[in-house]
Structure formats: C-alpha cells, structure tokens
Records
---
Amino acid sequence: MNPTEPQNGAAAKHKILFVCLGNICRSPAAEGIFRDMVEKRGLSDSFVIDSAGTYGGHAGELPDSRMRAAASRRGYRLTHRSRKLTDDDFRNFDIIAVMDDSNYERASRTAPDVESIGKIHRMADFATKHVWDHIPDPYYEGAEGFELVLDLLEDCLDGLLNSLVPNGSTGN
Ligand code: 4NP
C-alpha cells in the first residue's frame, strides 16, 4: 500500500508549493494562477496549493502592488501573505516549484535531507510554448517584466497541471 494514499478511498491530494525569493511577485502569482486553473477544471479538492520565499524580509506582506495590478487585469486576485520557506515545507509538500537557479540553490539549503531536494523542480521545465529556462525576477523591472512573468507562468502552470492531471481527466 502507498502510505501517502488516504485509507478512505479518496485520491491523494497533489501538494504544491511555489517558491521565489521574496514571495511577493512570482510565487504568489503562480499560486493565484494555478488556483484559478485548478478551480476552472473542478479539481480544487485534489490540490493543496501555497507559496513561500527563500528570503523572509517581506513576511506578512501582500503581493507587490504592481504584480497584483497586472494579475488583476487577467482576472487573478492575489491575496497570499508572504512567508519564508521552512524545512517543514519539504515534509508537507510533494512538489516545490522554484522560479530560477538561485531559488533552487537556496531552497536546497533549507531541505532537511537529500531526498527532499528531489522534490524541488524548476518551473520553466513545465513550459510547452516558451523557451525561457527560468522565470525572471521582475522586482527591479518595468511593467513589461510583470507581464512577461504572467505569460511564462500561464504556460508553465498549464504544463504542470496537465502533467499531474492529463486534460480531459477529472483527476479521480
Ligand atoms: P519575487 O521578487 O522573488 O518574485 O517575490 C522579489 C521580491 C523582493 C525582492 C527581490 C525579488 N527584494 O529584493 O526585496
């Protein structure tokens, strides 16, 4: 028996944590977009979705106002409060999806053991349309930087969701 499968016949939930540096731009946007995609496919009960940052300096803050505005224009409401990544996150989540190599390095150093490092995945690897190898930090960029992040995330998150629940499946 798979110990992660619930005993009551319900399918195990996919537990996904999105990680960037400050947890105020890229990862809360990923969380909000993914939540929206999962909801639109009627899969909300099959997922646990959250986000965190490898740097805790913005803990407690809402996402950056520029990211909230850009996301809102596409119909996403971002309400997450920034928090720092912890070693417990590696016990509570199955997939830790990071935005760039720096996030990968910093998250690896937070992982409690070597096996946990295997849970870290690069967001850009789920892309099906775009060829970027990372999701670029928009913090010091203009409005186009935020639009680019949203374009890339929409592509990658669609790829991630389809890799977990092939399109057309209910997930059960
Ligand atoms: P994020 O962007 O990692 O996508 O949330 C940043 C947010 C804050 C900072 C850098 C990047 N900062 O230096 O405070």
Note: The pocket of 4-nitrophenyl phosphate is lined by residues 20-26, 53, 57, 137, 139 (CB under 6 Å).
---
Amino acid sequence: MQTENPASPPVRRSFFDTKIEFLKGVGPQRADLFNTELRIFTYGDLIQYYPFRHEDRTKFYTIREMFEGMPYVQIRGKLDYIEEAGEGHKRRLIGYFIDSTGEIELLWFQGIQWQAKNLKVKQEYVVFGKPQYFNGKYSIVHPEMELYDPKTPLPTGGLQPVYNLTEKLRKKFVTSKQIGQMVRQVLDQVSPHLRETLPQDIIRRRDLISKAEAMESIHFPKTVHALEQAKNRLKFEELFYIQLRLLKQKLVRKVEYPGQVFKNTPDADTLLNVFYRQHLPFELTDAQKRVIREIYRDMSSGKQMNRLLQGDVGSGKTIVAFICMLMAIDNGAQACMMAPTEILADQHYNGLKQFADMLGVRIGCLTGSTRAALRRDIHQQLQLGMMKILVGTHALLEDVVQFKNLGLAVIDEQHRFGVAQRARLWQKNDHAPPHVLVMTATPIPRTLAMTLYGDLDVSVIDELPAGRKPIKTVHRYDAHRLRVFGFIREQLQQGRQAYIVYPLIEESEKMSYKNLMDGYESVARAFPECHISIVHGQMSAGDKDFEMQRFLSRETHIMVATTVIEVGVNVPNASVMVVESAEKFGLAQLHQLRGRVGRGADQSYCILMTDYKLSKEARTRIETMVRTTDGFEISEVDLQLRGPGDLSGTQQSGVLDLLIADLAKDQYILQEARDAATQLLEADPDLTSYENQPIRRHIESLRKEETNWSRIS
Ligand code: ADP
Ligand code: MG
C-alpha cells in the first residue's frame, strides 16, 4: 500500500479500498478499463464482482458423449487440419478437431488470419466452448484453445468462475480467466482483512458458512454444494442488511418524530360520528373497518404514522381515507390528498366533495391548471385553517402551499411518487409532521413490498364490497373484432358504456396517435348511432377533463383512449373494457385497466384483443388475466416474468441494485432475513451488544459507500 505524505494526518484506509491498478498485471490503463466498463475501482469492488456462472474444468468429454443443449464442453484431442471457406461476412476458418471417438468443427469468423498463423496443426489441444448441433454434426464457434501439455497439471477439483464481460473488454482481450486471476490474487492476500459481517448467533442458527468461506467459494467453489452454500450466505447477508436498514429507519422515525395525537371521542356531534351514523352510503366491508382501526391506532399513538394501504382496484380505499381525514379534522387539523394526475385529482375531489358537503366541511382542489385567483384564495384559506381538506396533484408540494396545521397527508397511487416527495410532505408542518397514508391500487408481491416499503407499516384491504360480480375476462383475436363490436352494441343497448383502449407505442408518440385515431375512426364507423369520447396524452388537461365529464354524465357512450385512463378513474356505469393489442401491455397495466369496469352492480366484461402471433410471455400474461382477478396473484406472475427491476416504482428505489439476491426467486431467504433483522432489533435496538459488533462495523463500512445509512446509529 501507499505511504501517506508525512505532513498530512494519517488516513485509515482499508485494504479493500486499494486501487486495482496495484494488482499484478493490471496497471493504470487496464484499471481505467475496469473502472469505466464494470465500475470496478478497488479490491473490494473486485471481489464483489461475482461470477454469473461456473464451469467444471475437471471434466473432459469425448466427442461421442456430446449432446444437444449442453452449456459447454471440454475435450482433448488433435487439430487435424484447418481451411478457410466462404466469402464476405460468411468467410470463416474451419478447424477439424478429432479425438478417438469422432470429429467436430471449430469455427472462427473473426481474427481469421491471426488464428490461421498461430494454430498448430496436428498438435494436441484442450478445447473449451459451447457446442452447437447443425446439419448432423457438432461445431464450436470461437472456442477457447490451449495446447495440451502433459507437464502442466490439469485443474484439480473445483469449478471455474465465468464473469460477465462487456464488448469493449472483449475487444481489449480481457477474458473471464484474467478476472479470475485478479480475484485470486486479492483473495490470497485478503484473509487477514476479511472480517465476519454477521453475528455468530445468526450464523449458528441459520446454519450459514462464514464470510471468508463464502467469499472464497462464490468465486472458486470446490463443489456445487459449496457454491450453493456461498450463494445462500451472501444472499442472506445482502437482504439482511437491507431489512435491518429499513426496520431501523422505521424505529428511528418512531422515536424521532412525535406524531400529532388524534383522539376519537364518543361525542355524537363529531364530524366522524355524524358521518358514520347519518351519511355513510353503504355498509363498510370488514376489511375496511379493520384498516380504519389500524389507522386510528396509529394516529392516536403519539408517533407519526407511515402506513401503506394496499387494496385492489375497487376495494374502497377512498372512503377509508375520508373517514381518517375526519378524525384529523375533528382534532383541529387539516388533511390533504395527493394524486398523480389531474384527472385523478379531480375525480377524488368530486368524490370527496359529495361527502364533505354533507358535513359542511370545506374542501378545495389544487392542480397545475387551477387559475391564479382561485389558487390565491385556496392558499389563504389553507393558512387560516378554514379549508379543511385539500386535494391535488404534486402542485400541493409547492412551498407556497402552507397549511395552518396539516395532520394527515394521503398519497394515492404511490408508485408514481418518489420517496423524496413523501418526505417533502412531512415538512409541511413545523411542530410535528403529518401522519402519512400511502395508498396503492397496484398490488405488490410481498417480497417487493417488504423491500420497497419495508420502512412502512402495511394495511391490506383484501375484500371487495359485497354484491360485486367478478369481471368476466376473455381473450379474442383481432379477426373477431366484428363480433366483439356486436357484443359492445348489446351492452350499449342495455344502457351501459364501454371503454376501448389503445396502447401507447413507446418508440413514437406520432404512431401512438395515428393508431388511436385509426381505431377511433373504425369505432365511429361501426357505431354511427353513438356518441364517442376520445382522450389521449397530447390533449390539454382541460380537454381531457371535459371528455371525461361527458363520458361520466353519459353524454357519450364509448370512451376511446390511450392508457391515460389507467389509474383510478371511476365510471360505475361502464361495463365493458376492450383492450386493443393487449399483448403490448404489461400485467399491472392490464389489471389496472380492467379495474375501470366492474364498479357498479352489473356484470362487467374485459375483452383482451390480440394478434394471432403471441410471444410466450405475452401468452402467459393474457392467460393470467383470463384466469384470475386477484391483483396479488397477478403481481406475483408479473414479478416472475419480468423480475423486480421492471416493476413499476422500483427504479426510483436504490434498494433493488442487488449484487446477488433476486427478489423474484429468493423470497424464502428474504423472509428469513427480515425475521432475523426484526428479532435482532427487538433484542438490541441500538446494536450495542458485544455480539452485534460485527454489524456495527459492517454498517460503518457500508456507510462510506452510501449515505442512506448515515441517519442511523
Ligand atoms: P379504490 O380502492 O379503487 O380507490 P374506490 O374507493 O374508488 O376504490 O371505491 C370504488 C367504488 O366502490 C366506489 O364507487 C365506492 O363508492 C364504492 N364502495 C366503497 N366501499 C364500499 C362498500 N363497503 N360497499 C359498497 N360500495 C363501496
Ligand atoms: Mg382509487
């Protein structure tokens, strides 16, 4: 390691911070390449660059033993002769390779001259690569070749790591083997520095291998079993520290942020009791009642509430939110509700206003298109505390929006808002942050919820209001559109309304628009007697709203739209949802769209139109939609199909940059990690025990990399 300039204070630098350029055979230029291509800067980065698979280099196959679909093969034999063939981009060098059982072809399409010059015909080689079966014989494209030398010992035991490389690294002749050698160098020096990162108690109880053993085996396992143990240990550790951080944040917040204390009095004249006894339009479901109790308990606890309310579309979250707002208002505070789009904000406003008007509670709506005069008026009424409920888009995050005393902030459709925006809401109040209720209609698989919202408490409405008929979902091919239109006509004749949704075409807004307009024209031709609304992303908010209102008031019968209607819009009389090119939609979107119907008492239908040609994944998505209406089941399938990185809302959350664990596959380990973290914090919330020192130390080193830990400990 380097010596410090004697004048400067000594910097305690860990072995793991050593730059990789100090490794044998690396140097500054190579190091640069690793920095930019793989973001590997230090020894620590390097040994955490885990191989994506392993190969067994102890096993030799004969040519006769090869079979179709084997991932790779290692054979020993003789390069019989070579020849060039083909022209242009088909030009190739063919090496005929034989052992005592048969012959295969080795193929090179690049570096032909260099290979032809350097290959030694009639010599014995060890050849390694992925065999392909074509025209009755096997071949290997661009094999790894090594002259067989009986004096060099063959690798004894163990699996060889294979590391991901980029195109650029390959061009600079960096191989997986070289990375392996670099890792080997570091691991050989590392043992005195590699400290255990989990407490012995957890290691013992979960039957985990040690950190040192795991780091060795994740790169150079002796057996398949050792590799599995290493993966298991490292996945557990990774998930454990994420859960520990989230749970600790939750704990810290509960200690640091006192909540406003809202009491539920039995007085008959509280808004809450008046509403409950005189104005409740329907009996609440048991799930709604349970969730309201959970929220009340939080809001009266003296700690700030941070609760996620999950409930499928149509499960009745709005009224739950309203009832909770009343509790805040009864206690002299104000409430707000933030929605991701203007359409939604307006709809929430209109829905809540009906209730608020019954009680004489003043409510306002603030969006980007609120006129200046009204805006000023709202600002003033809020500051004076006259306006009790404010609904809006993120316009209500602006600094000019000041409450007299904001007691409850409800955020609808959380996945569109970032964690930072959540935090900005907290700052709306000087003396105590408002209670925060995050509502989402996008069911999230448990594992993901645990990770994305692991710092929140969770309530689930797992029951739809009684009397709802499950939506019937069918899959129809484009060729049957006329019959589908016939079905829509029947529904319209019964006084119902229908949605027809077209996909957004990602590459081109223009194409999306054309697609939609073509669709609109064919719908208009097919239904000359009907009034048709159209809503798309390029319309102004006012125009969109105008069309939505026309549809809602039944002036129009068919709504042709792109996915702008996806979220939250509520038109109970609509009974048909037709999704055009349904194969272009993700599962979450399809589920959201379907949730737009089935909101009244009538039987509703969802018709998924597709082309005959469907990819395997698209078929799974469509089949899942036809099979079930359970949002949680659908979200699980979505997670399996797409992996966590692509689910909505996950990108903004850094927690998903996992090194080794996989939220789609490692649900069991995640649950164990969360349990372990919970138990640990219950027993030792400040991590002060001797036993838990490895954790403190590890957090210390993690903190250097990330700032997220800095609020803790
Ligand atoms: P979401 O959870 O999707 O936001 P909403 O709150 O919009 O659902 O409710 C959907 C519809 O169901 C609304 O029309 C609402 O008035 C109605 N609703 C909510 N709760 C009940 C209930 N317990 N019984 C009957 N209808 C209900
Ligand atoms: Mg809603």
Note: The chain has 23 helices and 22 strands.
